[in-house]
Amino acid sequence: MLDNLLKENIENPTQLERLYQSDKKGFEQAFFRIHSEISTLKSAEFWKARLEFDHPADNKWLFDKKEVLFVLISCIITGLLIKTPQILNFNARDFFFYEKNAALIVFLGLSIYSLLTKEIVDKKMLIISAGTFLITAIYINLLPSDRESQSLTLACIHLPLLCWCLYGWIFINFETRDLTSRIDYLRYNGDLAILSGLILIAGVILAGVTIGLFKAIDLKIDEFYRNYIAIWGVISAPVVATYVIRSYPSVTNKIAPIIAAIFRPLVLITLVIYLISIPFGGKNPYQDRNFLLIFNAMLLGVMGLITFSVSETSVQKKHKFNEIIILLIVALTLIIDLIALSAILYRVGEFGFTPNRLAVLGSNLLIFCNLIFILRDLYRVNFKQKEISQVAMTIAKFLPIYALWTLLVVFVFPLIFGLF
Q: Are residues 24 and 132 in the same domain?
């Protein structure tokens, strides 16, 4: 939302100052996101100097004590929750504890941090969001822990998506009709995925070095490190990554576009080679169930990359090569989805409906419809001189539909298919 406001008012100093005073950190993040688009303007030069002056080079890595305290509170809460089986002394595997609760705990930690750092929080919305988390946690943990149940497995698979939607609601400050806020959330998720990955890689290296050093002096800390440090670090990584995104926008806003620019052509080449290789691989999604599952997992991954690429590209200067690459990726992904849909319909016709087939069919139909609209908009971007921000808007409009579908799978499927 702030991105567009800044662009519209970049030559209006009074309005810019008002926006800055109302949300200094949000203003800074938005400014550096759009800086490449407005860098030629004198007013942009002034604001860049002003914002960087607030973070001089010799102090730019100093920590905000209040922000760090919020990070610690969020990490401690998530860490304690993830250790619940050990604290209460019960077997997590018997209760499906991590399958049911890991995503809830991660997104609860992120939501707590987000709420703590908001300058103004609507008490009514705070109670509603807390109640939603609580009801979801009670419901999912009341589901019988039957490892043979397809509907339970589907509920556990879709629960992270439902939690992601709930956290997004909190992230955009409950402004459900604001499409630009949804796009900001999508962009943030790309940054979050990249930074969380980097933090986890650094954590793995640190763990290896630490365990190796203690092993050299005949002290085995493997189990202690895994149970009390590693798991806490993994569950806290998204909160720490969010802190970095909020505190150092001028750094984090440079990482995601570079990663996206590197991976887009590579993904396009991989998809082309993969589609060409399918007839020669000896397997097909019509007969091989596992191959169909891999096919759908790849589809979801590429869909995530498309969303990430569009949300990142929408705030950069118009770049024809990037837009063509995204168009080609979407076209190939549509072909993959058509193959997956036809395979699912074939298996439904041959073997009938099951919870798994119904869930996969519904998900693929949603993605197919979304891809059609994205492809239409990308065609207009590449051949009708439209702005790619329109594509981002189309993706943002579809988010509530995905949220409703995940609600259906998590809350209704177990009832329809008799899990209770």
A: no
